[in-house]
Amino acid sequence: MEKLIRKRIVDHMNKYGLFSDRQFGFIGGRSTGLQLLKVLDHWTEILDNGGSIDAIYTDFMKAFDKVPHKRLINMLKSYGISNQTFMVLSQAEKQRRYRLKRDTDPSRREQYLRNERERYKMLKGVGKKKNRDEMTKRELRSKRKYWKNYKRDLRKRQTNMKNILTPPGSPHTNDEQAVQEEGVPVALQENVPGPSRQNIASKRKRKREKAKVYRKNKLLIRKLEESNRRVQMYRMRLKREKNKMNLIENKKLETPRSRTKRLFKHASRNFKSVRKTLDFHHVLINEMQNSCEKNRSMKKSILEILRGKLFRKYKLTKFAHSQIQVTNQSKRKRKSKQTISANLRGTVKAFFERDDNSRITTDKKKTKTVNKIKKQIRFLNDTLSNLFVKFKAENNDKIGFITFWTLKPYWIRKATEKERETCLCKCCENVGLIADCLKKAKIVETANLESLVKETVCSMDNLDCMYGNCLDCKQSTVKLTVEDKNDEVTWSQWQTKKIKKTFKGGDEKELSVTVKEKESASIEKATEKLHELLRPSYSRHLFNIKNQYKHYKTLKETLSQTECLIHVDFSENYSCKMSKEIQSMHFGASLPQISLHTGYYVTKDMDTIRSFCGVSDSLRHDPQSIWAYMLPILNEIKDLYPFVEYLHFYSDGPTSQYRQKINFYLLSTMPFELGFSLVLAGTSTKQDMGREYQEYQMAVSFGADILTADAFIKSIETGTKIKLYEVKEPDVLESRQKNSYTIENYSRYDENTPNLHRIREKAKRKMEKDKTCQNKNSSLLQTLQQCGSFEHLQITCLESITETLHGKDRFIEKDNFAIDNRSMKLFPDDVCTDKTLFPVQVRADGNCLPACGSVFVFGNDSYADEIRAHIIKELSLNKKFYLDKNYLSNAFGTDDQNKNILKSFAMYSDEYTHGVVLTERSIEDIYEREIMQIRNSKTYMGIWQIFALASVIRRPIVSVYPKKGNPNVRKDLYRRIEPMEKDSDKPLYIMWTSTRLDMNNNYWVPNHFVPLLEPVEIIPDANNCLHKYVIVDYESTPYPGYVEDVDSSDVYVVCMQRLERDIKKNVFYWPKAVKDKCWYNYSRILAIISKPKKIKGSSSNYEVDPEIWTKTLSRLQY
């Protein structure tokens, strides 16, 4: 339409020559209105000359958008242009006319409606059009708002259209016509009342009040603005004052560098201050230079100032010296402090702590504490200078004597005169006494026995040389400086003498006593005595000491998986004490003594040694007693470390205890009876093990009487980590009687027994170990550890054959378990069971969850590796079940199920990394990595492994979680877990606990598992059956009943009757007519139960607890 109008206008203009020679466009500096007016003037000039204008086309939306339309129209009318002015149709008008034309045609209207219906169905199918019940609450609110606005606009349009289409009413000519049209008489119309006086008065009052409120609001607004201005003024005033105060404080606290920065920051404005500061600097430098040249004391003062802290801090010392042109000739060169490596410190410490270099004190009070670290004092066996020479010979580390002395541990020192040595070696002391004597006489250069031996042998590491069998050095002697061989010297010697003693009854006995006597002889005989003692007696003794210690150290560091090192020794007997004693008991011989057999053992898998102490009232220290002490330890090693097959024994060498023929025989028989092979048994120089036990004598000072081994253990067992066990005197006697016959016939004696330092198994015995399930699964675990991928692990588990395990009920007293007191404090009070459960101790080395399974299956925690292998196999082969959310949720058996339980389990895993988005693939990766990780022994397990353990032992498991930490975690982990296949519905209980004591309730996390067991298994007897409900065995059929009477062997039971013929049906009733009463033997009581409960919906039928009934049927093999 617009194009047609434009074409008509252009043709008209060309026809009559109305276009000017130049184009009427925009001219710079003129407004759009002025340019339009100029065009209109041109048109009017045409009209004045007799021309005509048929149409005027104006585009109000383009060039003339700034011209007032009314002004333009009025101007056109003033020139006589009165034709109708119209605008081009808008798009809305065009669409309106199109719809009108379409709707007038019935066929097109029908086609349009059909298309709209199909379009509506299509939109409804894809979800863009929804019914009200399909919409969300937010969508429904939005739609209702749209409907409300649409309806409001529709009513408004309808009202406007009605007003437009309704013509104005014509004036009334007479009253009759008015009556006819209005239906109301004229008189009545004139008397229509207007607004009332009260209405008018109320309107005026409201108007006045509104005006008053407006005025008051304006006044308050002005006051508020004034208050805000005043507050802002005071705020700025306060800020300026603070800035002034801060400026003053900053000037006081400013550093030289901050003053310099502030000076340069305002250098352009404070040019005079900068210049003055620099002038002051140069004047001060020149004045100091002149003072240094003229006055030497002033130079020292200036140099002292230049050594100040600020000069060193800002690194201006060298610059100041160059500016003042003064040198510090007396400045000392500081040596850089060399850092001593940790390896060297450890090497020196280990060297000083060696038994050949220092000895431990025997007094319990000889301790030293530094930085709250308490150590037992050790005394040096030689001077520091000699030990330094020895250290340099053994090690290639570059170290000076001062550093060596500095690195000496604080608890190792030289002994004083008062600190007597009471456990010295007779061989070493006799040679040392004569060497000291000759050193004082200046006959030998040194009294160091090792140096003297070194002078007389080819090599101290050669056995033949040290044993005197070397032909080259056999006749070597110590270098002597002798002026007169006949001069006499005196020295002391320890000797054993026989004396006769007469007792009160007149009997005489010959006793052996050790005394220290002085001997005098010429220098020639004294040197001969020295050579006699030095070679080969002392040299052999010294070589044995070094060789034994070296072998002991090497053996301890190179133990294999199947070897165990045991170090034992008798400590001095403990003298029993009482808190209060009478005089005759204190000074007499009435107080008993207790034997202490101490030691430790270590295997390759152990991180630290396992110390033990056997305590007994028996004072026998013979070989039979030794093995009575050792049997509990050997059994413990067999249970805890089943891989151990070979034993290494170390002890000291008294001929009355360890180094004698009876012990040799027992050593060759006792270990093999327990399934071990003896590799080596040797003597050791290490003594005084177990003296730390005597530190617990403080218990006596608190009122305790320690007179027996049992009292001794109870007084100190809570304050030590060392295993304490009692060996009763009957056990010692039984050991003697058991081996008495064989020992009496074993009378062979070897004259070289006192010279023995080691015995060894001559022929390697073949150990016939039972191929138990444990050994099979231990080797399976080792095979699983060699798998390189999860797929390889699955294949290995699929090919392996393992036996089915069955979990059983265990009891604390029956199975010899100890209650875990730390876990008992964490035990929750909401455990759903009528049993009395206690947490018991299991190993806390990472194998705690498999150890719990071992307790339920085998009755102890020694088979953790076997349970671990079963768990890994279960998790590997049934991966899809343990990653199935539905399976995990159904296993809970509770209504408050966690919808994201799989993600929660993944987050509880040690393989989860915080921040990782948990998808199905990432959860599967975490699951596989966790299984690959738990293949290693002593690795911690979690909730997935508890699920697998339930299926392994074929019993439900209740995972008990304490009321600690995050309650959501407890909600996920405190559940009953059902196995895939089960032997019984009666659950077993495992509790999450922790060995840490530094956590509060809010941030508590577990790191340990313990089983929950009942204290004792109730055995029916006269004390616990009377007036109780029981299940009795009547002709191999179980019946519940009530015990009315008991005697020593039988119980009188009123039995219930069975409602169903099927024995497995748990439905019973009490007979009303004839009661079933009978006497039953105690052996026929199957269980003591709680009162049977009524079945829901029945008034006379009862049932026994389903778990107890299932257990009773399994006991009768139904």
TrEMBL record:
CDD domains: OTU_VRTN (cd22791). Residues 189-211 are annotated as: Disordered. InterPro entries: VRTN_OTU_dom (IPR047273). The keyword Coiled coil applies. It comes from the Eukaryota. Residues 221-251 form a coiled coil. Keywords: Coiled coil. Residues 202-211 have a biased composition (Basic residues). This is Reverse transcriptase domain-containing protein. It comes from Mytilus edulis. The lineage of its organism: Eukaryota, Metazoa, Spiralia, Lophotrochozoa, Mollusca.
